[in-house]
Design brief:
heterodimer, A: 145 residues, alpha+beta, Beta-Lactamase, 42% helix, B: 56% helix, rod-shaped, Sedlin (chain A), Longin-like_dom_sf (chain A)
């Protein structure tokens, strides 16, 4: 059984870190995923602060493997506006390589910026965009198989 | 259909199936709320009755009979009875309860749409009311339309009663309902006049996957009602089977609306402007958001004319009850819309309307001019689509650059057009697109289109930005003229002069005019020593930050300069006086005479020198104090700076935005 990503961009400038969007495939154990994502936020914050005055380069937006726990791995990515993307991947899914994860995050980031272009979207709102949903679904389907 | 069966005035009213459906529909339209048992809105009912074209007194009778007057409202039962009575009246039977017991044709309602269109000024109230009734269609107007050759078949979707029956007045013609008439759909479509507030749209959204047919008429009506104009009927448009096509009038209307927002047809409507405009349509925000997503194909936060038309069209469709598609229909793609604007229109009369849109497309497709001509000659879709695909792909990088160059744009902050133009010029694309009104770029660090854009552009443009910014930094200021050194040199010389004057007076040539022998005159000495001391103070610190001290001292020097100069002539005079006697002494007079004035001068000078020394010492002390104070200030400023820097460093990882 493939269990993959729970994706959640989390908005941080207000220091509240609430999820803008959460999705998981398959949908069982979703609560566990939510919990994992939430705890991983601390790791993300730590990584951001550790960078300090580091250049905000796109390469550094990808935080890499945050920590491997139990039977899943957590990857993080942060945008320049401190919106965080967290991906939880089943550890048994060894086919997923780092650059694939990177490309997934890049796609997510692109879709997120597309959403931001929409004047009807207020930053900080939960994301209801169908285009975003479709993109996420297709991505997850693609990589789960 | 229970109420129908259970008559209100204790009258069992048998309704045929068709009648039931008809009445249910009409009732649904008239009722203000979703509750099936709610009473029909009085105004809607009144209109409906008026539309039946019965005389007023007949209507009064009907209302009385059906029991609405008694009950005070038009409940379902009353409504149905009333409708039946209307049918009876229309078929010539007397308005009595007995007459409705028999089978009657359906009541006919005309002129409803006209009234409603006049009445409804806002799109919110107009619903094309496409209803999907999977079962037998409503033949409400079957009789009226019989002459149109429309079938009484349940399968055929009779258009709205207001449709274009030949007998109807010209105002009905506005509805381009001609299409769809002869078409027999699979019976799922019905186009009812936009006369009623349609609650059905709410219901049918779920059902209708293909709420397409006949929607154009709705759009046409809607557009006209929106513009509150009565345009001549354009029955030439044959896009009958696609609600996602934009008719000519609609396109014109959209064009006009675009102009009101943005006079230049070639440039964009920004996000906020469009948002305000579309919000007026009173659609819910999530839907508007979805419409935007669909129509803003290049995801730049701004709408071109084509995108705007698409968005507007979607809004119009949505208001008419059509569910929003998940994907932008092909006919609403900007490519297609711009192609369509180029194609020669079948009706030459409307060609003028496209003269405006032509420059738009031509400008954006300069290098394909020859192909454009071929397009014009050959009105096929395939070629232009290919062309425009190419062009859009070229346009995209340009827009990507333009958008990417706005990395620093804040959310909902308008960007200066100059900035855009500058950056676009740096990228020098072939297509001269005018970005006059550039989008409100929400935090668009990078943008994406349906076709992937090269991301590297973002960095190239940012490097250009950085280069520009760096180049704009002012060069370091030139070094200050170091008068101090000159002064110092003069200082030394003066010192030397001071020493030497006491020792050897005669034969000592006066110093150059720039450096008058100050010690000779007490006043000049004061001035000179004031100058000397600052110079002395200046020399020890020799810190760059002592420039403020320098600055303070320098102003003192210029005032002293004129003083010096003032005294200079005096000095010079004195010098000359002194010199002349000395010279004269040396030259002509014997030593006796020379001694005499020399002795006098020497004693005077002694005294003068002593006073000068005292005063200089005082001045020295004052300046030394000043110096130490300034040094302290400097240290404090240093400390503050260090403190702020540490604070900044501490805060930086937390609040970088």
């Amino acid at each position: 059984m493939e269990r993959i990503a729970l994706l959640s961009p989390v908005c941080s400038p207000r220091l509240q870190n609430y999820p803008l969007y959460i999705r998981s495939v398959p949908t069982e154990n979703e609560l566990k995923f939510h919990y994992t994502v939430h705890t991983s936020l601390d790791v993300v914050d730590e990584k951001i602060s550790a960078m300090g005055k580091a250049l905000v380069d796109q390469r550094e937006l990808y935080l890499g493997l945050l920590y491997p726990t139990e039977d899943y791995k957590v990857y993080g990515y942060v945008t320049n506006s401190k919106v965080k993307f967290v991906m939880v991947v089943d550890s048994s899914n060894t086919a997923l390589r780092d650059n694939e994860i990177r490309s997934m995050f890049r796609k997510l980031h692109n879709s997120y910026t597309d959403i931001m272009c929409n004047p009807f979207y207020n930053p900080g709102d939960c994301i209801h965009s169908r285009a975003f949903d479709n993109m996420v679904t297709s991505m997850m389907m693609q990589y789960v198989k | 259909m229970e109420p129908g069966a259970a008559a209100a005035p204790a009258l069992l009213l048998p309704l045929s199936e068709a009648e039931q459906q008809c009445y249910a529909e009409l009732f649904a339209r008239c009722r203000p709320g979703p509750a099936p048992e709610a009473a029909a809105g009085g105004s809607g009912v009144a209109e409906l009755f008026r539309a039946s074209q019965l005389p007023a007194d007949a209507l009064h009778q009907i209302t009385e009979l059906c029991g609405a007057k008694r009950v005070g409202y038009f409940g379902p039962a009353q409504f149905y009875v009333a409708l039946k009575l209307i049918a009876a009246a229309q078929s010539g039977l007397p308005v009595q309860l007995e007459s409705i017991k028999s089978e009657l044709p359906l009541p006919r309602f005309v002129a409803l749409k006209n009234d409603s269109e006049m009445r409804y000024g806002t799109p919110a109230e107009i619903h094309g009311a496409k209803c999907q009734i999977p079962h037998t269609a409503l033949d409400k107007n079957s009789f009226k339309r019989a002459d149109e050759g429309d079938k009484l078949e349940t399968k055929s979707p009779p258009m709205s009663p207001i449709g274009s029956p030949p007998a109807s007045p010209s105002s009905y013609q506005r509805v381009p309902l001609s299409y769809g008439y002869s078409k027999s759909r699979s019976g799922h479509e019905q186009k009812h006049g936009a006369s009623y507030e349609s609650r059905h749209s709410a219901h049918q959204q779920d059902e209708s996957a293909v709420g397409n047919y006949g929607a154009k008429s709705a759009h046409g009506q809607l557009s006209r009602s929106l513009s509150a104009e009565k345009e001549p009927q354009d029955s030439s448009s044959n896009y009958s089977d696609d609600p996602w096509r934009i008719t000519e009038e609609q396109r014109d209307y959209y064009l006009n609306q675009f102009k009101t927002l943005q006079p230049d047809l070639n440039s964009f409507i920004s996000g906020t402007v469009a948002k305000n405009f579309f919000t007026k349509s009173k659609l819910p925000i999530p839907e508007l958001s979805h419409i935007w997503e669909l129509s803003d194909v290049d995801c730049d936060g701004a709408l071109t004319l084509a995108e705007f038309c698409a968005a507007f069209h979607l809004i119009v469709a949505r208001k008419n009850g059509y569910p929003l598609p998940d994907k932008l229909p092909e006919t609403l793609l900007p490519d297609y819309l711009q192609t369509a604007s180029l194609k020669p229109i079948r009706d030459c009369a409307l060609f003028d309307s496209y003269s405006e849109s032509l420059p738009v497309s031509q400008q954006t497709r300069d290098f394909n001019r020859t192909e454009l001509e071929t397009v014009c000659e050959d009105p096929t879709n395939s070629e232009p689509l290919i062309l425009f695909d190419v062009m859009t792909s070229v346009i995209e990088p340009k827009t990507s650059i333009e958008e990417v160059s706005d990395k620093s744009a804040l959310i909902q902050a308008a960007n200066s057009d100059d900035k855009q133009a500058l950056k676009i010029s740096t990228t020098a694309k072939t297509i001269p697109k005018e970005f006059q009104h550039l989008a409100v770029k929400t935090v668009a660090h990078e943008t994406n289109t349906l076709k992937a854009r090269p991301r590297s552009r973002s960095y190239s443009s940012t490097s250009i930005e950085d280069a520009m910014k760096k180049g704009e930094e002012p060069p370091t200021p030139p070094p200050r003229p170091q008068k101090s050194h000159s002064r110092a040199s003069s200082l030394d010389l003066n010192k030397i002069f001071q020493q030497t004057t006491q020792a050897v007076r005669s034969g000592w040539l006066p110093p150059p005019p720039a450096l008058p022998p100050r010690p000779f005159v007490s006043q000049t000495e004061q001035v000179s020593e004031i100058e000397l001391h600052p110079q002395m103070n200046r020399v020890p610190p020799q810190i760059e930050e002592s420039s403020p001290t320098k600055k303070e001292i320098l102003p003192t020097q210029p005032p002293s300069k004129p003083i010096r100069r003032k005294f200079r002539p005096e000095n010079q005079m004195l010098e000359n006086q002194e010199l002349s006697p000395t010279i004269s002494v040396t030259s002509s007079l014997p030593a006796v005479k020379s001694h005499h004035p020399v002795q006098k001068q020497s004693s005077k000078q002694k005294r003068a020198i002593q006073t000068a020394i005292r005063k200089n010492k005082e001045a020295n002390a004052v300046l030394a104090r000043l110096n130490s104070e300034l040094q302290q200030q400097l240290k404090e400023v240093h400390k503050e700076r260090i403190a702020l820097e540490t604070q900044l460093e501490q805060l930086r990882p937390v609040t970088v935005l």
